Every structure is written in structure tokens, then in C-alpha cells.
Amino acid sequence: MMCRGAAATEQGVDLVKRAARADGAEESGLTALIRATVANFATDAAIAVALANTLFFASPATQSRVNVALYLLMTVAPFAVIAPVIGPLLDRIQRGRRLALAATFAARVVIVLALIFALDSWVLYPLALGTMVLSKSFSVLKSAVTPRVLPPGIDLVRTNSRLTVFGLVGGSILAGGVAGAAALVFHSAGALVVAAVLAGAGAVLSLRIPGWVEVTAGEVPTTFGNEGTLRPLKLRQPLGRKVIAGLWANGAIRVLTGFLTFYVAFVAKGSTDSALRQAVTLAVVGAAAGIGNFTGNAVGARSKLGRPRAIMLACAAGCVLVAILAAVLDRPLGAVLAALVASCSTALAKVSLDATIQDDLPPESIASGFGRSETVLQLAWVTGGALGVLLPTEYWKGFTVVSVLMAVAVARSMIGFREPAGVTR
Questions:
Q1: The pTM is what?
Q2: Which CATH number fits domain 22-217: 3.40.190.120, 1.20.1250.20, 3.30.930.10, 3.30.450.20?
Q3: How confident is the model at residue 161, as a pLDDT?
């Protein structure tokens, strides 16, 4: 039996390796980027396990709410300032992007090791902030590097979906399980040791990305603006109305996913349900989110999705409707449905946004466009997370507020898509 299990595991590993190298990914450098991306997902998962164990599950409901509120305050406020800087800073990095990717991991090794000795002090919060900013920075850098490692037969849309699927399976699921097991035995410190090892591996893997990702000759940075935006003397490419409208739709969905990440946990913990029932609720919502995310990315990676504008609007509108349904139901079932729809919509809408960027921007501005858009989406998620902590822990109240905010963003997206070319707002 053990031999059969080992053989099955070996076959599974070989299958994953072949998938990562398929379609010329090994030769183009995409496989190397996939490995670094998996390491980033894995590091984030291990850190999340450690912080959840410290900030949430290890404290009473009221105290954990204060802990996570402080954590998000330390996260949202500085990141709101940092986010607009990351994109322009990325445009200035003409060399050393592999080194910058590796640096996001190396810095996390240092921070994670410091976290082991700061779990019971206020220093936890700025250190936790550092890990999030570095993770977001990796995501923005990755978006700018991806166009330079495309295999001949794969477009950016499928490439980004492939990166996410590998990150979820090889990183979030597997590494999250390992970190969870370590936390059970050695508490948060065990999960942090796992995170440090993974971050160290990520630094090495980042440096193994081929050197041609450093070639940026002829690249034109992007700027937020419509087609009618005047360019300054230094050449800048406006993102355009379709991309910006797509960002409104995607941003609305990211607000919901960020909101669900924290809100459901607080509602469950603040209820009178038994600990087992609370755990089951969180597990079912988490499973729904995982299924939706994997399904959306798998569909995006394998299908040619036409009419990206319609897909983005449909996904965003679907998220508004499911948030309204969750408010009406006012019970965990609504949260489960919202997690399923939101996670699947996140993947499909992001694939459609990628397609819009690829179609609407000239080749010399695509890398910068991906970096700028990723920055906006990360900030939208953090905003949703803040709402998940601040809103009242009654399903109908929280989902009502979020659905209204999302509806406003979706309306703005619809207006943007309908505007004639050349209109500037």
C-alpha cells in the first residue's frame, strides 16, 4: 500500500512538472516564473496561518477583533499611500527586476524570523504590514515580467491563469496544509519557520528567471487616463477608457473578496454557535472560495473567452446580486454562495481585464499596464478587508453596505464602457 501511495505521489509530481513545462514554457522562461509565483503563494499561505492563529483564533472574539483591526489599520493606511507609488517606481526599474523579485522574498525571510520573537508585542503589526507590502510588490513586479516570458503559442490571458492555478494548488493549498500542521504542533512559530524556508526558496527561484526579462528597450510607461488624455513631453501611454472601466468592475469584485476574507470569520466567532459549528462554517466558506477560484482560473486558462467587456460586467453584476441575496438570507448559506460566486468571478473578470489590456495597449506598454492594474486591484482587496473588520457582525448589515458600494462601482464601469472614445474624466 505504501509503495502504491509513493508511486501515485511521484506520478502526481511528474504530472505537475510536465504541465509547468508544457507549450514551450521551459524555453521561454515561464516555468521559472511559475516556480517563483508558487513560492509567493506558499509564503503568503504560511504567514496567513501564523497570523490567523495569533490575531484571531488565539483570542476571545472582542480581543481578536481589536487585533485584526489594528493589523488592517497598519496595513490599509500605509498601503493606500504606497500603492500609487509602486506602479511609477516599477516603470523606473529598467534593470534588476529579477533582483527586485528576489528582494521581496529575502526581506520576508528577515521579517518572518523577527515575527517569531514578536508574536506577543506591538511590533507584530508593522512586521505584518511589511510582509503584505512585499507580497503585493511581488505581484505587481510579476505582472510586469510576465509579458517577457510568454511562450510562442500562449497569450497573456492563459499565461496569467496558468500562473494563478499553479500558485493556488502548489502554493496556497499544499503550503497552507504544511503550515497548518506545523502550527498545530509548534503554534504560530512553526508556521513562521515554514514561511521563512519558503521565502528563502522563492529568492533563489526568482534569480533563476532568464535574464531577458531585464530587456526593456522601447517600453512606454502607462498612466491612468482615457484616450483623450494629453501626453506630457515624456511619452506616456494612457490606459484608456475600456481598461479603466474594467478596473472599476474588477475592483468591485475584489472589494467583495477582501470583505469575505475577514467578515465571515468575525460573524462566526461573534455568534453563540459552538466552536465546532464555527469551524464548520469557516471551512465550508473557505472550500466554496477555493472551488470557485480554481474553477474560474481553470476555465480562463483553457477557454478563449470572447467579449471581455460583457464578462467583466456580468461577473461584477453577479457579485452585486449574490451580495444582496446574502443580505436577504442573513445566514451562513448566503456567505457560502457569495464566496463561491465572488472567487469564480474574480478569476474570470481578471482574465477578461488581461485580454482588454493586451488588445487595447500597444506592445511596448503592456508590461507597465499590467503592473498598474495589479496595484489598483490589490488596493481594492485591502479596502474590502477593512470593511470586513469595521462593519457590524450581522450578515444583512454587512452585505447591504458592501452591495451598495459595489453597485456604485459597477455603475461607473458601465458608464465608462459606454462613453465614446476620446472622453476624459
A1: 0.77
A2: 1.20.1250.20
A3: 76
